[in-house]
């Protein structure tokens, strides 16, 4: 059977439709992939923000502890330099 112009046109149209269908289905797959990636990035962003807040809180606690140590350091040095008392008895 010989191919006529009508058969070639039909085959070409079918080929274009097939390629378009495959392309569109691939785009849908990529959209799903990007949606999953975006969701995962959002989850990671929340975790990073939580870790940053925890680190800031720990930094503030450490600063307060250092200030308290600085306040009592003078008193400790006075006690260390004071003459020793003789025990009674």
Commentary on this structure:
The chain has 89 residues and is mostly helical. It has a domain at 35-78. The protein has one helix and no strands. The protein has one helix at 5-81. The longest helix is centred in the middle third of the chain and has 77 residues, at 5-81. The protein is rod-shaped. The mean pLDDT is 85. Keywords: Signal.
Keywords:
89 residues; Membrane protein; signal
Indicate the topology.
Elements: H1 5-81
What is the compact description of this entry?
Residues 49-67 have a biased composition (Low complexity). With 89 residues, the protein is mainly alpha-helical.
Distance between the termini: 129 Å
Classify the oligomer.
single chain
Instruction: Describe the main β-sheet briefly.
Output: none
Helix content: over 70%
Class by helix and strand content?
A: mainly alpha
- The stretches of 5 or more residues where confidence is low (pLDDT under 50) are none
Q: Count of DSSP E strands?
A: 0
**Topology order in helix (H) and strand (E) letters:** H
As a whole number of angstroms, the C-alpha radius of gyration is: 38 Å
The chain-level mean pLDDT equals 85
Number of helices: 1
Strand content: under 5%
Question: What characteristic shape results from the CA principal axes?
Answer: rod-shaped
Region (Disordered): 49-89
Biased composition (Low complexity): 49-67
Keywords: Signal
Organism: Stenotrophomonas chelatiphaga
């Amino acid at each position: 059977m010989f191919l006529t112009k009508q058969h070639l046109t039909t085959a070409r149209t079918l080929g274009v439709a097939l390629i378009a269908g495959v392309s569109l289905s691939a785009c849908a797959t990529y959209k799903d992939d990007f949606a999953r990636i975006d969701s995962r990035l959002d989850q990671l962003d929340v975790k990073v923000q939580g870790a940053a807040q925890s680190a800031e809180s720990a930094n503030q606690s450490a600063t307060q502890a250092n200030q308290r140590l600085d306040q009592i350091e003078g008193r400790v040095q006075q006690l260390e330099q004071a003459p020793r008392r003789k025990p009674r008895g």
